[in-house]
Amino acid sequence: MSAFWSAWVWAITLAVILGCTWLLLATRKGEQYKETTEETVGHAFDGIEEYDNPLPGWWFQMFIGTVIFGIVYLGLYGLANVKGFYGWSSVGQYEEEMAHAEEVYKPVFAKYAAMSIEDLQGQPEGLKMGQRMFANNCSLCHGTTGTGAHGFPNLTDNDWLYGGSHDAIKQTIAAGRTGAMPPWGAVLGEEGVRDVTSYVMSLSGKEHDAEGAARGQQQFQALCTACHGQNGEGLQALGAPNLTDDVWLYGSSFEKVSHTIRVGRNGVMPAHKDLLSDDKIHLITAYVVSLSDK
């Protein structure tokens, strides 16, 4: 936190404490009656009148106690960039807890890190650990069960953009992936987009315009084979999907396929090597493998 924002937080905090103290004392001083009275405040609500009694002493003392507690707390624990008497900070506590967890769980992770991905498939407890870490780090995009969503791959089948080997999956989790489909709308024109879409639909046996597909084949060969191959079966080295099966990352309707061709797509799988240790990535890899091996 910058010095400015640290000072800003301190100013607001002290203003609140001083404001509450002033309000308490001013209210106490302004009370007309110091003892219990039969006098009312002079107005009624649905026939109910309120006595003009002073704030009970214990209640007033409780409020004063909270103010004192706040001041003592700030002195002991500090606020923003200013440390208190104990030298405590949320960052320091986090680091201490992480170090403790590392010490406690390091042998457990080391045990599973020594096993191969194949051997881990027979370790229910290890897979449960991988599942929990998957839920914390991966489920937002791939879903809690790994079935994916629009634009996010399904991890429970055997279709892999970058390869389904254990090493390839681990590399994807650790280093991330960046996929880019360039837009061809300006090159093809709208009619050309429809023709190429028809040809792409024909590759997977979907309903299509035969005449448009015939025209689109030539344009596909000129523009798309560098990534998707001559037969449209894709290239895992580039993350270019197979267009001949029935697995579609962004939908298989004519409109969605033509939209992909027209404006392109950009997909990013974030790298986790700086967030998770190698041992944790190893367990997540084992869990992801288990999803498609069922």
Present the secondary structure layout:
Elements lengths: L2 H27 L10 E6 L2 E4 L5 H21 E2 L2 E2 L6 H24 L3 H4 L3 H14 L1 H4 L23 H10 L1 E5 L3 H19 L6 H14 L1 H4 L25 H10 L1 E5 L8 H15 L2
Antiparallel strand pairs: 1-2, 3-4, 5-6
In quaternary terms, these chains amount to single chain
Distance N terminus to C terminus?
48 Å
Shape, principal axes of CA atoms? elongated
Q: Mean of the pLDDT scores?
A: 92
The CATH architecture assignment of the largest domain turns out to be: Orthogonal Bundle
What fraction, in percent, of the residue positions are helical?
55-70%
What proportion of the residues form beta strands (DSSP E)?
5-15%
Number of separate strands: 6
What is the name of the CATH class of the largest domain? Mainly Alpha
Number of helices: 12
Order of helices and strands, N to C? HEEHEEHHHHHEHHHHEH
Largest sheet: 2 strands, antiparallel
The radius of gyration computed from the alpha-carbon positions, rounded to a whole number of angstroms, is 33 Å
- The name of the CATH topology of the largest domain is Cytochrome Bc1 Complex, Chain D, domain 2
Unreliable segments (pLDDT under 50, ≥5 consecutive)? Answer: none
Number of domains: 3
* Content-based structural category: mainly alpha
